Structures are given as structure tokens and as C-alpha cells.
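USER: Please consider what follows.
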Amino acid sequence: MKNLHKFILILGAISIILSACRSAAPVEPTPTQLDPNLVYTAAAETAQARLTENALLVPTATPTFTPEPSPTASPTPVVTEVTPEASLTSTSAPITTTADNAVYVSDVTIPDGTVMAPGTSFVKTWKIMNSGSTTWQTTYALVHISDNLLGATSPVPLTVQVSPNQNIDISVEMVAPTANGSYRGFWRMRNAQGQFFGDAIYVDIVVGTAGSSTQAPTVVSPTATTAPSTNGTVSNLNTRIDNSTVTAACPYSYRVDASFNLNAPAAVTYRWEAGSDTPGFTFTLPDAQTINLPSGAHALFFDLQLTNSGSGWVQLHVLSPNDVVSNQATFALTCE
């Protein structure tokens, strides 16, 4: 009986094993139609995954940048911006030059109209001031420029130096003519370069009696050796107006100067001429004059008085002993 029970149990176990084997047999899958888009998507995702995987596996190389050689390897020029004003100052500033000038201060001796006996020797002394910016050296001189020399020696060199703004007394030995009349002689300072400058000063005497001082001035030949002739020739004629552009209260006077050389004693006849493009502008000019001059350098001047604004020119026209016209010295006046 006991053995029968064991046999039944063995049969049951075998039966159970056989059942399990039948259930584990492979089952053929039912064919399924796949969507192509799904296939492509899956393939793309797979490729992306592979790329991502490879990227993760390969270390990312950090890009490096090799800079160009630094410009500081050579000195960097320093550029300074220059304003127009600075440029004008550095390149266009005018060159500083000294200027000669002289101003009449007073008559120290022989006031104008002094009456003298014929042939009287006298010393005329003027006080003048160095109003320029140069120091007058002993190469400077006071020079007779027109009218009567009155027996004097010209030029008269300075004997001392004269600083700017300093006064000096200059004396000239003269002799009164032997003929009665009124006499006047003009003098002016001249520098070492032969250029005249400053105020023209003069001596004015009357030979004879006091009553003759009212007579018109008489031009007399200084000496027989310098008697006027018609052989003289005027050359190097030049007219000048200093400080020609002016804004000032009117009436205003310009000092007009003309210089020239005379190669022999002669009677010089001249007149001042002027012109303007300003409508209604008028001039008051001296009449033509004749003066007896020795040979040498000479200068003439007059004061051109103007009453209204305008511009123009002035020239000196020498009529004899030869006909010659100077340059035109221009001016421009603005009345305040």
C-alpha cells in the first residue's frame, strides 16, 4: 500500500512536468505591419544617441587663441591733438623785431622865430625822446633833410647811447645867413642802415629886425658850394605811412613821409598826390613847392588830415629836376 502511494505521487509529478513543457513551447508571432516614419525616427534617434555617446567619450578640446604680436613691442607714438589756435601760434606767430622811433619834446635853445643879426653863429639844441624799442647807438645820427642847412654840418652822429624812453639833447652848430629873411631847416634821425625815422624837427630863425619875422619864409642856398643846379637827379623815391590802418576819433592826421636821393645840388619841385575809391572822400593837400637841396639823402613829410572814414593812397610826384613818381602808400581810416 505504501508503495502504491509513492507510485501515484511519481505519476503526478511526471504529469505536471509534461504540462509545463507543453506550455513553454514557442509560439509563432503574428506578423505586424511597421510604420516607415517610426523606423526613420528610431534610426535618427539611434544615430543621435551614438553621436552623443561619442561626444561624451571624446574629451572636448578647448579652443585656444594665439594673439597677434602686441603693438607694444615697439614704442607707441604719442599723438597730441593740436588746436587751430595752437597751430597758428606755433607756425604763424610774427617774428619779433625792434623798431626805431623818435618824438620831439622841446626846443632847448633858439625858440622858433628867434631874431638874429646876419652872419651870427649859434647852437641849436633840441630835446627828443627815443620812443621806439631799440637802443640808439653812436652809429645813429641827426641828419638835415630839407630847406636851409644854415651853415651846419650834416649828419651829426650821436656821442652816447640812448635807451628806449630816454631823452637826449642834440646840438648843432649853425650860422645865420647874411641876407635878411626868415629861414627854416628840417632835420630827422637816421639809423645805421640809412633809414629815417621819427618826427622831423626844425630850426626857425629870422635874420634882420624883429619886424621881419612876419615875412614869408625865404629859401636860401646854404653855401656857394651847394648852389642849386639843374644837374641833380632824384632817385630811390619812396613814400611811407606808418600805422596806416587805424580806428580812431576823427578828424585824424596821418604822417606821410617820402625819402629820396639827390646826386647833385638842385632846386627840387614836388607835389603830393592822393586818391580814394571811397565815394565822397576828399583830401586837403599842400600846393606844389620848390626847395633848394644839396646832394645826398633827403626826406619830405606832411600831415594828411582826414575827417571821415575811408581808404586811399598818397604819393609824392617830383616834377624837377627830373619827373619821377613814388610808390602809392595806402591807408584805411575808420572813424569812431
Remarks:
- The first helix runs from residue 2 to 23.
- The radius of gyration is 58 Å.
- The longest strand covers residues 196-207.
- The mean pLDDT is 74.
